[in-house]
Design goal:
The structure is a single chain. It contains 3 helices and 5 strands, in the order E-E-H-H-E-E-H-E. By secondary structure, it is α+β, with helices and mostly antiparallel strands. The chain is elongated. The N and C termini lie close together (12 Å).
């Protein structure tokens, strides 16, 4: 196979936050509900806020810098190992930050 793959990854740490909350659970929180009402229904009384039943999720996670590098298409099976080697070579690993998550693979 000819061509290249652009690999994008991020470094993961033990202290990273990665949480999903359903919209319904979020609207059950009184502080969130009060903030929504005061921002979008100011001056109105007897307002009810409801969520659709389609399980919309909100993801809360630590914001990370993305890193990229190119590999040959022949190296597809080793992309994770190559990403770890790229991070090590560029001294991106710190204390308690020793894992890699692949974000995107783009063929060229």
């Amino acid at each position: 196979m000819d061509g290249k793959i652009l690999v994008t990854y991020k470094i993961l740490c033990k202290s990273d936050l990665n949480k999903s909350i359903t919209l319904e659970a979020l609207l059950q929180n009184e502080k969130v509900l009060k903030a929504i009402k005061s921002e979008f229904a100011k001056g109105f009384r007897n307002i009810d806020v409801k969520a659709a039943a389609n399980e919309c999720k909100i993801k809360i996670e630590t914001q990370k810098e993305l890193h990229s590098f190119e590999v040959d298409k022949n190296d597809f099976a080793d992309i994770l190992v190559l990403a770890e080697e790229h991070a090590t070579a560029n001294k991106l690993f710190k204390k308690d930050c020793e894992r890699v998550e692949l974000i995107d693979l783009e063929t060229r």
